[in-house]
Amino acid sequence: MAPPEIVTFGCRLNAFESDVIRRAAAGLDDAVIVNTCAVTAEAERQARQAIRRARRERPTARIIVTGCAATLSPERYAAMPEVDRVLDNDAKLRAESYGVTAYPLPLAVEGSSGQCPETGEGLPARARAYLQVQQGCDHRCTFCIIPFARGASRSVPVEAVTARARSLVEAGAREIVLTGVDLTAYGADLPARSSLGAMARRLLAAVPELARLRLSSLDPSEIDNELWALFAEEPRLMPHLHLSLQAGDDLILKRMKRRHSRADAIAVAQRARALRPEAAIGADLIAGFPTEDEAMFRHSLDLVAECGVAFLHVFPYSPREGTPAARMPAVAPQIVRERAARLREAGAKALAADLAARVSTSGEVLIEKPGRGRAGFYAAVECPPDATGIQKVRFTGVAGDRLIGVAA
């Protein structure tokens, strides 16, 4: 009996949940499960294309569709002749939804069970684990449909987080990545109010054997003082902040209903580097948001250099039915595509500059597979093929979008 094929679209959390689905549906035979994303129209188009392709290639398979797009528009996917069943985001994580024996829902999965959500590359056994600590979102950014698919913000109690982290480390994980829909909202809903920084501090204290802790996407307006203090003091917290910036123009940020300004974004990047000079900045930016003119776009384009964004994720704006932004005056599609390309070009130049500046320095690298690893500041590194675990290396050059490392 072959395990079900899982096809995943979207964010890190969706990638995490696909691993949960893989375990929950392990008893299914001859099945394809498509875990959809609703962030952009393109993501939905690709999901529908994958569903049709799955039916052509596997005519006898049972095709199950789930994820955010399926949660928001179940009737749209149920109407597709290729689809046998539609599950919402809650049902997809329960074994009984697939007709197999129930099992306890894990808070985390080891990297060996699939792909790195950020790179798409395979991870070796126990190198890295993804630990979900928060779900849902209480904010209502005007472009975003995800709160309607994921619900209100919910936090995993810190005791459960530390217990799961301890078990992952005991199983051999060297790095844990904390994930969530709105990670910096962690703790506000708990009976004993907490914060992301306070939880991360307790986690690191409770699990001293954990070598590396990394954070996924952060809202720059919600980074708490405890997290800044931990970032400054704790070398096990990786010097890498990925910021949900979305735009670099203040008027566009207001129309997006974001909670930070352009100046706030720059200040966060500057503060991170003042505390940890080796820190790297990642960011999400949207190209072509409604009403964006060339001058507004230039502010976003310039923000890449002003914040030193080495790891840039670019999203061409895509209207989501039911969101306020979908009713705003749209930017022409060809202009959206052109602006996205310009942002990606700026991001590639920023990454090249960041990598070049790190040549002749040294750092610790987590080996992900023979000859390949990832530095604490997140850059991919080509390493000696016999390197294992966490290795101290000296960066001697750059090969494309990777550093070259030799034993230090």
CATH architecture of the largest domain: Alpha-Beta Horseshoe
Backbone structural class: alpha/beta
User: How many helical stretches?
Assistant: 12
Q: Mind summarizing the main beta sheet?
A: 5 strands, mixed, barrel
Query: CATH homologous superfamily name of the largest domain?
Result: tm_1862 like domain
Keywords:
408 residues, alpha/beta, Rossmann fold, pyruvate-formate lyase- activating enzyme, 3 domains, five-stranded mixed beta barrel, four-stranded parallel β-sheet, 12 helices
Would you mind describing this structure in some detail?
With 408 residues, the protein is an alpha/beta fold. The protein contains twelve helices and 18 strands. The strands form five sheets. It has a five-stranded mixed beta barrel. It has a four-stranded parallel beta sheet with strand order 1-2-3-4, with helices on both faces. The protein folds into three domains: 5-98, 3-Layer(aba) Sandwich (Rossmann fold), CATH 3.40.50; 108-358, pyruvate-formate lyase- activating enzyme; 362-407.
